[in-house]
Specification:
By secondary structure, the protein is an alpha+beta fold. It contains 15 helices and 9 strands. The chain has 2 domains: about 15-55, no CATH class; about 80-115 and about 125-150 and about 185-370, archaeoglobus fulgidus dsm 4304 fold. It has helices at about 5-15, 15-25, 30, 45-70, 95-100, 160-170, 175-200, 215-220, 225-240, 255-260, 275-285, 290-300, 330-340, 350-365, 365-380, and strands at about 85-90, 110-120, 125-135, 140-150, 205-210, 245-250, 270-275, 305-315, 320-325. Strands 1-7-8-9-6-5-2-3-4 form a 9-stranded mixed sheet, sandwiched between helices. A hairpin with a 2-residue loop joins strand 3 (about 125-135) and strand 4 (about 140-150). The longest helix is centred in the N-terminal third of the chain and has 30 residues, at about 45-70.
Length: about 400
């Protein structure tokens, strides 16, 4: 029992045990009892449990897949008056072949990917963001930016006070709101750079990007007014002027929609909704200033209804993929994504995005970055004394 907590309130102080038992099928107190843990690996027992649990999960998903196809898909067109195009559509292999011959292999599509690596030590933090644009004609461009975090304590004639200021600053760094906001800013800069490169550094007719084009980091500005203004202006040009884009997600966000995606047959795609509701929910839940909130709300009202969220699947052996495209060109856009994804049916993900990621890592990856960092320390006479050797536990 916690000190100072009345006995009648002790059971209400913490919560979550019921949720743990519902999720994992056993009480947390049982899980914490090391006498019930396996001794060593017990490979035979572990394999048997893995097979049983995975088989049960797959059986459940197969049943759910049937329910989605027979009960849910037929109701999609009438689900929302705001998006009458909702529903399941089919693409033939011949249609995808035409996209290969007339668009992708003619170099009329570019994809973008980025990488982010960092070095953090007592004296300095360095972050590197790289972006690469590729098409089937080769790499269209590669760009990078490096951010140097330098801590500065106020100087005074008191050397002891200056030393204590540095120590206090570094001790409290991970408790500092500004440090967390700086990490969020780096993610925002990376997301902005991907979309800016696609829009302004590519000359291809179609642009292929990763994840939601109206990313959380951009619609919030990651807490920075400059990033918010630049991001909203960039996205407005992408949505209202260029229009020929498709973004494909490789994350497990929107798990409910992805569950629906597993009910798709190969060659099918489903149109779900526009990004307006997602945008409203994000803007309403984020702490903006008055001016920034007005800007974000205006963007959601004027631009998000023009971007459609959907799912496609190219093979029984690959997962469904969430995609985002302009509402006017969504049927063309999804065929571009599916045609590029069918080239690797075991993955079912646009090959150009994978190639862009590999190109970016080759140019701006961890090994080359750390080599430059170590060389700079050596020239400064520091060698490896500021390298901890391990990152934070995940």
């Amino acid at each position: 029992m916690s000190e100072g907590v009345p006995p009648e309130e002790a059971e209400e102080e913490l919560f979550g045990d019921d949720e743990f038992e519902a999720a994992f099928g056993e009480q947390l107190a049982v899980t914490l009892d090391l006498n019930r843990w396996s001794t060593g690996l017990d490979l035979d027992i572990v394999m048997e449990r893995f097979r049983r649990e995975i088989a049960n999960a797959v059986t459940k998903e197969d049943r759910l897949r049937g329910l989605v196809r027979t009960e849910l898909f037929p109701r999609l067109p009438g689900r929302s008056n705001a998006f009458p195009e909702a529903g399941v559509y089919h693409v033939t292999p011949e249609e995808l072949s035409l996209v290969h011959e007339r668009l992708l292999f003619q170099g009329r599509a570019d994809a973008v990917a980025s990488s982010s690596v960092s070095h953090d030590s007592i004296p300095i933090g360095i972050s590197q963001i790289g972006v690469a644009i590729v098409g089937y004609g080769g790499t269209s461009g590669a760009f990078s930016q490096r951010l140097y975090r330098k801590e500065v304590a106020q100087r005074s004639g008191d050397g002891l006070q200056e030393a204590m200021d540095y120590i206090a600053m570094r001790q409290n760094r991970f408790k500092d709101r500004h440090d967390a906001q700086s990490r969020l800013a780096r993610r925002g800069i990376r997301a902005y750079a991907e979309r800016a490169a696609l829009l302004d550094k590519s000359s291809a007719e179609w642009r292929i990007g990763l994840n939601n084009p109206c990313a959380h980091e951009l619609l919030t500005g990651s807490g920075y007014m400059s990033l918010l203004q630049k991001s909203l202006g960039l996205l407005e040009r992408l949505i209202h002027e260029h229009k020929k884009f498709v973004f494909v997600s490789n994350t497990l966000q929107d798990r409910g929609f992805l569950t629906m995606g597993f009910a798709l047959d190969p060659g099918e795609f489903v149109l779900l909704e526009t990004l307006e509701n997602d945008g409203k929910h994000l803007v309403d839940g984020w702490q903006y200033g008055d001016r920034s909130k007005r800007l974000a709300r205006h963007f959601v009202r004027e631009s998000c209804p023009h971007v459609v969220k959907g799912l496609f699947r190219v093979s029984d052996h690959s997962p469904p993929r969430m995609f985002y495209a302009h509402r006017e060109l969504v049927h063309e856009a999804v065929r571009v994504a599916m045609a590029d994804s069918v080239l690797r049916q075991e993955r079912g993900f646009p090959m150009l995005l994978d190639v862009a990621e590999m190109s970016c890592r080759a140019a701006f990856g961890e090994d080359g970055f750390q080599g430059l960092v170590q060389d700079a320390y050596a020239h400064a006479g520091a060698n490896l004394q500021y390298f901890s050797g391990r990152g934070l536990r995940r």
